[in-house]
Amino acid sequence: MHQSVRAAALALACAAAVVVTGCASLAPPAPVEPTAGVSVEHYRGRFSVRYEQNGETRNTYGNFDWQQNGENATVQLLDPLGQTQAIVRQSPRSASLELPGKAPLTGPRLEDVMHDALGFALPVGGLRYWLHMQGAPGSQASIERDAQTQRPTRLKQDGWTIDYQAYFDGTPTRVKRIDLSRDLDGSPLAVRLVIDE
């Protein structure tokens, strides 16, 4: 199965939501119904996020289950026990973040919704391209490659450092694990993303 950049991007975008949800859980989202002529993509993976909040280092981790129907995506964030802790929905015109016991937060951009809910935002737009091992359009990017395989080992763009840690075997080349890091407004942020399928 081919990797999806949007799967990873959306999963990361709501990853830190697990920290603020407590013990409550959301009902899983309904399966995405395919649109005529568009196939539904389905991916699963794991994430971990390390960041600072009020001067303290915090960590959150879990799993994600992602479905995409054309430009519309739904990502379910699960805790290590499999309970749904956050649901993100994104379309070309809007985004929403659902947390247990709270009204859904909505807005035109997922980054803004996340920042309003959690106090910081992750590079959703860039991730779409970085998982394809290329820079995002609109700004300069530098890419370092392994001398033998020519696979990217590191990409830098917009203050982010993206380290390519593992690839799936086979062709075409697909990323299995990436580590991202950035010092956001004096607060370090590190993200690890592993795509299982």
TrEMBL record:
Keywords: Cell outer membrane, Chaperone, Lipoprotein, Membrane, Palmitate, Protein transport, Signal, Transport. Its main location: membrane. It is found in: Cell outer membrane. The keyword Lipid metabolism does not apply. Pfam families: LolB. It is a lipid-anchor. Residues 1-26 form the signal peptide. SUPFAM superfamilies: Prokaryotic lipoproteins and lipoprotein localization factors. Monomer. Belongs to the LolB family. This is Outer-membrane lipoprotein LolB. It comes from Pandoraea vervacti. The lineage of its organism: Bacteria, Pseudomonadati, Pseudomonadota, Betaproteobacteria, Burkholderiales.
